[in-house]
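Issue: ligand-bound run for zinc ion - logging full I/O for the record.

Environment: standard queue, default settings, no custom constraints.

Inputs:
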Amino acid sequence: MNDSEPAGRRAGRKDIAMKSRWNDGDFASVVQAYVDKGVNRDLAIRTYATRLLGQDPELVLHGGGNTSVKTVIADRDGSDVEVLCVKGSGWDMGVIEPQGLPAVRLEPLQDLVKFDSLSDEDMVMLQRRLLLDPAAPNPSVEAILHAILPFKHIDHTHANAIVSLTNQPHGEELVRELFPDSIIVPYVMPGFVLAKVCDEAFRAQPRGDGMILLKHGIFTWSEDPREAYEDMIAKIDMAERRLARGIAKPFKSASLSRNVAPASDIAPILRGAIAIDTGLEGAPKRFVLEHRTSEKILDFCNADNAADLVRRGNATPEHVLISSATASRCPRPILKSLTIGRETSEPPSPAMRRSTRPISSATMRGSAGSRPCSILCRASSMSRASACSPPVRPPRTPALPPMSPRRPST
Ligand SMILES: [Zn+2]
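Outputs:
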């Protein structure tokens, strides 16, 4: 590890240092405002800390990640109940409100890990049974994992830097070297099995100072919310600095000619090509597209082996929730030269063949050997489109009803 390496050495990055955004003044005023409205103090604290994490795109992408706090809440019958307040499905961490962290009875939630197996459906149903408020959103699929870790405040993110390191072929070796005191967990799909695997890993290393989940993310914890948050920031900073010592630019730089067709010319052709025949004349199922481009996207799209790369699938399995497993590659769209034809330079990806049935054989054709210019996200509905766009943010007023789930929440 080389923590003394100057920030900004990595090409294209001005500053790699992660900085704590904790502000004691903001903390005090946010927490007091909620307490004045009758919100449990621990829950108010967790709301502030969760927002700090969620508002940093390097830490939380598209709602991934979750947080929790263990506390005691008065039930409707007046009795005090030990609960886990854990992020609920459908809530954006960056603007979360206390009702986005539903209270789940702690002890019976911890007991669920004793099952030998539990389907996702049964786990969701059993977790819902343990909610203090039956109208609350579904607790995260990682709620049992939060429950079995014996710490008051727990932060979990799918931080870019951690998945970038652990997606490497020798990712485990890299994080073991970087975080020798942390618990390292192999990749397991989020859900009940992951909770069991993490339970065993924690029991084997109860003094671990955090948990790294390969190809998934990181957990930090503490009795103190600021400590848990700042430990997250410190570890991500270490991962960022380690990454900065790697290959600065894995893909060849973009070298596009200026006569690339704009997205507004390309999108209608793509919409036609990927629309699904519903069997109803003139009523195909169409998709909402969103055009995105950036220096990094262009580097990727212009890589010599882009056609191969888009068929390999996501390096981070959790990103399947945000994008399809694989993509299709179109040739570079030349301005005023877009044609509709029955040929394409490459066959559609297996995912596209499975999920779509073009209503026409429209494809874009460009010059032979040309390259694509950027990415068009496909969305099957407006709600899927919002998975590509910045998440829809819930209103801030605590009195509003909970959001309905947009997609599986981790
Ligand atoms: Zn996760």
